C-alpha cells in the first residue's frame, strides 16, 4: 500500500488553471488488491482512498502508472507531474471505475458518542457486498471488456504520449460558476456525484474519505 499526501493534481484533470486551489487533493492511500480470474482474464483492483476526486483524476493516475509499468516512462516522471507546467499524461478507459465505498470514520469519531447520532458502519454487510460485486459488477465489466476491448486497444496508444511537458497552450478554462460546483464532483464522466460531509459551520470535514476502485485487466497485449 502506498501512502500519498496532499498534492496539486492539475495535470490529472482538465479545464483548470495550475493556480486553482481546487486542484489540491488529498489521497490517503493507493493499494493493489491480489489478482483474481474472471473467465479467461486475470484482473486486479487498484483501490484509491481519498477525500474527493476531480474529473478524470483517477483515470489519469491509472494511465500514468500503466505507462510506467509498460516501460514508456520512468518513475522520474513523478518529479514533474505535480508542477505547474502542463504534462502529457494518458487517460485510462472509464470501464470499471466506480465509487466502491464511502468512509464515515471521521463522522463516527465525532458524533457517535453524542447521544443523538448512530455510527455509520457497513462492515457487517462486507461479505454480501463482495459477493454481489464478484457475481454481477465484475462479471459485467469482464463481459464489456471482452466485447469492446477498450482497455486492450487503449494500451496500444500508450507509446503515443510523451510523459513530459507539453508544447501546446493550456486547456480552455471552465466558467467560474462551474469551478465552484465541480469541486464537489467525483469523476463526472462516470455520472457519479458525491458530496463531502459538512460540519455545522458549513466547512468541509476533510477526514471523511471516498474509496474508488478500478479493476485493471493484467493480460499483456503483444505489440
Highlighted features:
disordered C terminus; single chain; alpha+beta; 25% helix
Question: How would you summarize what this structure contains?
Answer:
The chain has 223 residues and is an alpha+beta fold. It has helices spanning 57-69, 105-111, 126-148, 150-155, 176-182; strands at 6-8, 24-38, 41-50, 98-103, 209-217.
**Unreliable residue runs:** 170-209, 218-223
For the record, what is the CATH homologous superfamily label?
Pseudouridine synthase I, catalytic domain, C-terminal subdomain
The first-level CATH class name: Alpha Beta
Largest sheet: 5 strands, antiparallel
The helix content is 25-40%
Give the overall form: flat
Ordered list of secondary-structure elements with their pairings:
Layout: E1 6-8, E2 24-38, E3 41-50, H1 57-69, E4 98-103, H2 105-111, H3 126-148, H4 150-155, H5 176-182, E5 209-217
Antiparallel strand pairs: 1-2, 2-3, 3-5, 4-5
Could you characterize what this model shows?
With 223 residues, the protein is α+β, with helices and mostly antiparallel strands. The chain has a single domain (6-165), classed as Alpha-Beta Plaits, CATH 3.30.70.660. 25% of the residues lie in helices and 19% in strands. The chain contains five helices and five strands; from the N terminus they run βββαβααααβ. The protein is flat.
Amino acid at each position: 500500500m502506498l501512502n500519498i499526501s496532499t498534492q496539486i493534481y492539475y495535470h490529472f484533470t482538465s479545464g483548470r488553471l495550475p493556480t486553482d486551489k481546487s486542484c489540491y487533493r488529498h489521497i490517503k492511500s493507493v493499494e493493489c488488491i491480489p489478482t483474481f480470474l474472471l473467465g479467461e482474464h486475470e484482473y486486479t483492483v487498484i483501490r484509491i482512498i481519498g477525500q474527493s476526486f476531480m474529473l478524470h483524476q483517477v483515470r489519469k493516475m491509472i494511465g500514468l502508472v500503466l505507462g510506467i509499468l509498460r516501460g514508456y516512462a520512468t518513475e522520474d516522471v513523478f518529479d514533474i507531474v505535480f508542477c505547474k507546467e502542463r504534462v502529457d499524461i494518458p487517460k485510462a478507459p472509464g470501464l470499471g471505475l466506480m465509487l466502491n465505498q464511502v468512509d464515515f470514520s471521521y463522522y463516527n469519531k465525532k458524533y457517535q458518542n453524542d447521544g443523538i447520532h448512530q455510527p455509520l458502519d457497513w462492515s457487517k454487510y462486507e461479505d454480501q457486498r463482495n459477493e454481489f460485486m464478484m457475481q454481477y459488477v465484475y462479471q459485467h465489466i469482464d463481459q464489456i471488456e471482452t466485447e469492446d476491448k477498450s482497455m486492450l486497444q487503449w494500451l496500444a496508444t500508450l507509446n503515443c504520449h510523451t510523459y513530459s511537458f507539453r508544447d501546446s497552450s493550456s486547456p480552455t478554462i471552465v466558467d467560474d460558476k462551474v469551478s465552484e460546483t465541480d469541486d464537489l464532483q467525483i469523476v463526472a464522466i462516470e455520472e457519479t456525484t458525491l458530496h463531502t460531509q459538512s460540519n455545522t459551520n458549513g466547512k468541509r470535514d476533510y477526514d471523511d474519505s471516498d474509496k474508488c476502485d478500478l479493476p485493471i485487466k493484467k493480460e499483456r497485449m503483444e505489440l
